[in-house]
Specification:
The chain is α/β, with parallel strands linked by helices. The protein is built from two helices and five strands, in the order E-E-E-H-E-H-E. The strands form two sheets. The protein has a three-stranded parallel β-sheet. Strands 2-3 form a two-stranded antiparallel ribbon. The longest helix has 9 residues.
């Protein structure tokens, strides 16, 4: 079994949000907290590094960690 210090995670937040009325799902609040915060809280004990893959709202997502974007548009 891998130790948390041996794993990294990538949160996929790079969709077009067509089913969410154009709003990024990760930034929608649940119990007064963006969904991405709930995910990060669950992953942190299990990982040495968490990256966020996003194509929009990069400034907002960068508040939570390192953001990587797709190389190809669309």
């Amino acid at each position: 079994m891998l130790l948390p210090s041996q794993t990294s995670w990538v949160i996929l937040a790079g969709g077009q949000a067509t089913r969410m009325g154009g709003n990024d799902k990760g930034l929608i609040k649940l119990n007064n907290k963006p969904l991405i915060e709930h995910v990060i809280e669950r992953l942190q004990p299990q990982a040495s590094q968490i990256l966020i893959n996003a194509n929009r709202n990069l400034d907002k997502y960068s508040h939570y960690g390192t953001v990587i974007s797709d190389s190809f548009p669309g």
